[in-house]
Amino acid sequence: MSLFTRSSTSPDTHDKDGTDRTDRTDEAREPSSEDTTAGTATPVRRWRRHRTAFQRHRTAFREKYPVAARSVSWGITALAAALVFFALLMPGRPEYFVVRQFLRIPVEPILAVALLMALPRRPRLIAAVVIGVGLAALVVVKSLDIGFNQFLGRGFNVVLDWGLLDDAESYVKDTLGATGARVAVLGLVAFVLLLFAVMSLAVVRLVNLLARHRDRTTRGTIVAGAVWITCAALGLTPLGNTAVASRNTIGFVQDRWGRVQETLRDEAAFAKEAKKDRFADVPADQLLTGLRGKDVMFAFIESYGRAALEDPAIEPGVDAALDEEGEALTEAGFAAKSGWLTSATYGGSSWLGHSTFLTGLWIDNQSRYRTVTAGERLTLPGAFDKTGAWRTVGVVPGVRYNWPEGDFYGFDKVYDSRDVGYQGPKFSWSTMPDQYALTAYQRLEAAKKGDKPLMSEIILTSSHQPWAPLPEMVDWDEVGDGSVYKDIEKAGKDPADVFTDPVRVKEEYGRSVQYSVHSLLQYVERYGDENTVLVFLGDHQPMASVSGNGASHDVPVTIVAHDPEVLDRIDDWGWSDGLRPGDDAPVWRMDSFRDRFLTAYGSRP
């Protein structure tokens, strides 16, 4: 039964005797030889023939099964109305999917009906299709909001975030495999196209029905408008804190338009901000004087957030790993201080956290990232490079293609996943275990005692979602080319089983952080010396299914050093002793770290 099915007469499409003029014309005219000649019929004529045949079958079905025909017709109408109201009242966050959210009176259909009834038939149908397309687009954006809120802790930005869908596809491919990802993408595209078609047909059907009962529609619109105004004026909220009178869609569109304007303004303002740098003109011989001769490592642990140290389901295992490695570091002569940083991102988009930390700018969206990496901002690696006293190296195992940002950051050499000789399996998204990435760094750079100390940035990826399968620690002398991990990967858990289980996903996330902590700190214990300085931190919190809805963006940050003078320079920071920041440790925005670090270990500008 078509969504265009008519069930009663309409003043503007029927004769006085009740006959549908459009249907009568199409059904009465026999197809001409011009219409049916093979190879000469136009698409319009062919469509008319199919439509005429369908109408004949429909009429025959009505005459033979009148009760069933009416039931199907009203069922489709009810479904059309439900789709429209769902689109209007659909929330953008999963926790708001409650019954009371859908028991509200939206103002938008009242206004739309009042407008559409004033239009002639053809403009009315065109407007109905446009409204249907708009409602489908509304559902798509709200669905993206749900996904972004779950994974990134924020809504979808209609200006900046379309490019992140490519990353989502790559993530699905890493999790489900190439075939699974292809099926998922094709299925999603088909669903979206079907949504646009069905929503447009639904609105057209409802509009045609209302037009055929114009008097009832007018009275109903007036009554509904009066009820809505009364509920809005009285602020009625009989269902918890949910107002009966809703302007959800109008507010949503206004909010998104405001975000678009804010985004465009922000791009211009940030471009000016990025050019201002109080450390840009500091002479090279005054930069980082307190670290001369030290091998300095900056290590990011993927998704290492506050939840890892505070969530009761995760904290015990991570704390035990930190305590174990802390004791070993103390025995080796190292000490540590820890604090908190508020990341510019959450749940993903790790490069935003990395760039915020290294540039001293708040980079919370892709536009800002493009702006700053296209400029000449002094980064932390760039400051080390500027002195001429260090060889600067980047180890980025998550990068599988050319990475031009390496030049921006100021690295003499960048090692991506293709440069480290790994012959083992991938672990879902992670291209290689952290222990292997560290042994490759040791083999390729740290073991080669050059005439300069090393400054390195190392990105550890084993704690990247979906946290299955996970690598395990092996003897450092057995890491080899990574082939040792093949059996470990085969014996690991299925990512689909872990990622969809709210209990197991926390457990495996905690295990992944433990693995990264053990890998990094055992590396320092094994290969570090009196000149080793390690700064390690998380890039962002894990996604909401692990850290919880509305979780903070805080991540731990720790400085480990053998030389006590290195930690003495940050005594006034108020950080906690050891590898775990205490509850009273200060919380700084991540973009403030660069300036504090350069000030503590060099001259003030």
UniProtKB/TrEMBL annotation:
Residue span(s) of domain Sulfatase N-terminal: 337-546
Record keywords, A-Z: Hydrolase, Membrane, Transferase, Transmembrane, Transmembrane helix
Membrane spanning residue stretches: 72-90, 102-119, 126-144, 183-208, 220-240
GO molecular function term, any single one: hydrolase activity
InterPro entries to which the protein is assigned, alphabetical: Alkaline_phosphatase_core_sf (IPR017850), Sulfatase_N (IPR000917)
Positions of the UniProt region annotated as Disordered: 1-46
Ranges of biased composition (kind: Basic and acidic residues): 12-32
Feature: compositional bias, Polar residues: 1-11
Name listed for the protein in its UniProt record: Sulfatase-like hydrolase/transferase
Organism from which the protein derives: Streptomyces phaeolivaceus
Highest classification ranks of the organism: Bacteria, Bacillati, Actinomycetota, Actinomycetes, Kitasatosporales
